[in-house]
Amino acid sequence: MAVARFLDHLAAFVGEVPTIGRQSSAGRVRIEGAENVLSAYRTGGVVLMGLHLGNWEILSEAVRQLGLQASTFYEEAETEVQTRILREIRQDVGVDLLEANATGLRRAMRELVDGRVICLFADHLRGGRIMAPLLGRPPEKEGNLAIIARLARKARVPVVPAYVLREDDGRFTVRWMPTVRFSDDCSDPLADVLMLNRLIEPPILANLDQWFFLDDGLN
Fold this sequence. Notes:
Order of helices and strands: HHEHEHEHEHEEEHEEHH
Helix content: 40-55%
Distance between the termini: 18 Å
Low-confidence stretches: none
Strand content: 15-25%
Number of helices: 9
Shape: globular
Strand order of the largest sheet: 1-9-8-2-5-3-4
Largest sheet: 7 strands, mixed
Number of domains: 1
Number of strands: 9
């Protein structure tokens, strides 16, 4: 039953969080499509478009495993203790943290121009409402899909979607999807949102029992 698998997944995720930095060295992380992000990185900065699938914190470990320099946005967790733990985990694997505000976005733009990787998760909630994936709803000019497109266009860098899945043997697979490069034509920002949404919906729908926002989507 999908709901039971989802609950098992959440329980496993909580237990895994303190061990993120050791998963790769223990041989539990398999990477697919690394050439996609590595070839993009050789040309300059990259926007890494992550998804809250599997244990998404392992994306930071995968970035380090590939020898890349990265920064990611963070928001306050439900408690101060949870926020501190998550900050420490991400910093321990060599990821710099950006505030989820205008100051953080300006810093992200500078880092992209300087050739770094910026990680921003496409699927997210705002005010208790799922902003992405759209799942049949009309696109909006707000939300992370729009921010990802604007960052990539302004910095003239590609987007590489990526996600993590938990396998039945207790290991993880990190999948780097094909690189997205925007054209110079930006006449319709909503078209960018729709295009990125078409990339993130299939892996989410195919792995709903590992999607963090499944319970929010059912409400």
